[in-house]
Amino acid sequence: MSGIPRPVAPRIPRPASRLIRSVPSSSLGQDPGRAAPCGPARWASTRYRCVLLLWPFEAWDPHSFRLRRRLRRSREACRHGISVYLPWRLLPPSGGRNKASKPQASRSGCVCYRRFPMSIRCVAAAAALVLLSGCSLKQAGLNRMASALAASSAVYDSDNDPEFVRAAAPSTLKTIEMFLSQSPNHVGLLLTACSGFTQYSYGFLHVESALQGGNPTAARELRDRARRMYQRARGYCLRGLAVNHARITERSIVGHPAVLNVTTVQDVPFLYWTGAAWGAELSLADDQLKRIGELVAVRALLARAKTLDDTWQLGAIHEALIAIDGLPRLLGGSPAAARADFNRAIELSEGRSVFAYLAMAMTLPEGAERRKLLEQAVTIDVQNSPVRRLTNLIAQRYAKALLAAARSS
């Protein structure tokens, strides 16, 4: 090992010009500014601070003449009054003194930094602040408009003209979806989309399909549209629940209904509308027998909402449970539970809920009791309950059609 000659670093003479100084390589890249391409022409035309990296690796490097040529160009740059720093260091060959180690190619590079005046830096900082504030102002305006749209559902609920709402609701719902594309986690918009699509599907598609007795093709098309709208509503409802409870998903509710135990009173609207949209979509499904397991999820959603606040919306939760508990016993229904839900809904609404009478009548077979409930639904004065005026008007129209069909048969 002692006979192996030790590599000797190339002797690179230091330039005589006093404008060229050596600096440690650890100080590279600390000068703020913007990188620019190096070259004698650029150095001569614009004031740049340039750093020339000279890293010779081996004494026998055949490209060492290139390093000297770069050094000569650096001297030429100094003639134009440009400060050029020449940090250089020797790196040991890989493998130490082992003969088997192969010489590595030398690497050299040039990094330039343009030094901007302080005034330009201040202007750039001010521009960045303006851009950031503009983004925040845009988001604030978006949130304000989204909140206004979220409150629009109350305006529709108190409207006394269902046909006007039928024409106006689609544009409003589409606008809400446009805002959701910008603010996908806006809870108010998600709740409005969830409830809006559910109510529109029931009032103007689902009920209309039931009234198209003489036109099976039109009834089928309306049912298909209603089912798709219910699915869209359920998607927004589940997204709204997932904003505060990431573990709540469609699969988790079906497989483990206990996941809903983390919900609070603030989640009652989402729980109700998710159960309502899901249950209504199941009632229109073609493969109902294959989806019986999803009834557990619907019942769990409404039961959790009932546990948290059974007085919500003057008994709306009990009205939805009438249809679930009114199913056949093989599907988990119970006539006694449906009757209890009906009585509680009438108590909370003070007898002014048309939908409660309609829902209870739909669970009964043809007979005197069914006809009596439909007659009571028709005689209710919907103007006495402005909060749910639109829902009562739609339910009353459906009850009138069912009552007319029962009388004609």
Report on the architecture of this protein.
With 409 residues, the chain is mainly alpha-helical. The chain has helices spanning 40-45, 64-78, 118-150, 152-157, 162-182, 187-211, 216-244, 250-255, 268-283, 294-308, 316-325, 335-349, 354-362, 368-379, 389-408, and strands at residues 20-21, 34-36, 49-55, 84-85, 107-114. It folds into two domains: 20-115, no CATH class; 161-408, Alpha Horseshoe (Serine Threonine Protein Phosphatase 5, Tetratricopeptide repeat), CATH 1.25.40. The chain is 58% helix and 5% strand. The chain has a five-stranded mixed β-sheet, with helices on one face. Strand 3 (49-55), helix 2 and strand 4 form a beta-alpha-beta unit. The longest helix has 33 residues, at 118-150.
* Largest sheet geometry: 5 strands, mixed
Low-pLDDT stretches: 8-63, 78-116
CATH topology of the largest domain: Serine Threonine Protein Phosphatase 5, Tetratricopeptide repeat
Let me know the number of strands: 5
Q: How many structural domains can be distinguished in the coordinates?
A: 2
- The total count of helices amounts to 15
CATH architecture of the largest domain: Alpha Horseshoe
Outline: globular
Strand content: 5-15%
- Return the string of H and E elements: EEHEHEEHHHHHHHHHHHHH
Broad structural category: mainly alpha
Instruction: Tell me the name of the CATH class of the largest domain.
Output: Mainly Alpha
- Overall pLDDT level: 75
Indicate the multimeric state.
Answer: single chain
End-to-end gap: 114 Å
Strand order in the largest sheet: 1-4-3-5-2
User: Can you say what the CATH homologous superfamily of the largest domain is?
Assistant: TRAP transporter T-component
Q: Give Rg in angstroms.
A: 39 Å
Helicity level: 55-70%
